[in-house]
Request: fold
Amino acid sequence: MGETTPRNRILEIKELKTYFYLEDVVVRAVDGVSVNLDRKTTLGIVGESGCGKSVTARSAMQLIQSPPGKIVSGEILLYRNGGKKPTNVVELDPRGPEMRSIRGAEISMVFQEPMTSLNPLYTVGHQISETVELHQKVSRDEAMDRALEMLTKVQISEPAQRLNEYPHQLSGGMRQRVMIAMALSCNPSILIADEPTTALDVTVQAQILDLMRDLQHDFNSAIILITHNLGVVSQMADYVAVMYLGKIVEYADVNTVFHNPKHPYTIGLLESVPVFGRKGDKVLVPIKGMVPTPSDIIPGCAFEPRCPKAMDICAHKAPPLNSVETGHDVACWLFE
Reply:
């Protein structure tokens, strides 16, 4: 991913390993992930369920439940307030004051299911204003004004009324807007969106994506978009990291990934997605087999049992993530 640090870098994740220590096994949910995020850009992290996307995002916010989870090694470097010397989030106490000041104020997260993320006992206005009060040290009235301002920005209908309503009184699309309003209420540098359009109908999905794109422009935020939906990635992302079983297998800008994919897994993902207007003679090609369990000890490439281009070396030695051309990294022996 390059050794120099560009001036607009906001986050660097280096060789991150996050494991879960269960009774009989060790689950290697994230196993050596390295990605970079620049200001005002969107990084899409894609892959099948269980590949480590959400754990990578939660690690960046020190939201790994311990026990059984633990960040075993690696660095998560956050460049704060334009400073040249980053803060290594891994070294901070997850429950300490500095980490609490980072969450919400500098890195915010929109979780996958807003109904389980919003507190059913408090009104929408209370929950947004509480976040503002915590991080911006303003009065209750000022925080409530900010909550109303944010609900207006996320284009929720009748925002003044919604302030006094509870999550169960809102539709799924409205709750997702509330989550985005809460996440952006303190002008964070980084917004992590974990499957932000899951369980929403197609029309509402498009509205939420348009909203996130507009708010990113307004707030100059960088976005990490966690999703298995390649259509969403094609619309939103500037760069794409493809994950498989806890590792990055391909990393490039969005046009390269969609039009010149290299890794057999990336190609398989793209060939298995229905495309509007696809000619009838071009059938979908599913990826055979199943994703291995993260607790399995795999000496070679984890994708080897499912790969149509597997070679002898693939079963015995894991390929490193190397650059095949400028800005395009692939972990595959085909390109060594």
Q: What stands out?
A: Residues 81 and 126 are 28 Å apart (CA to CA). The two ends are 17 Å apart (CA to CA). The chain has a mean pLDDT of 87.
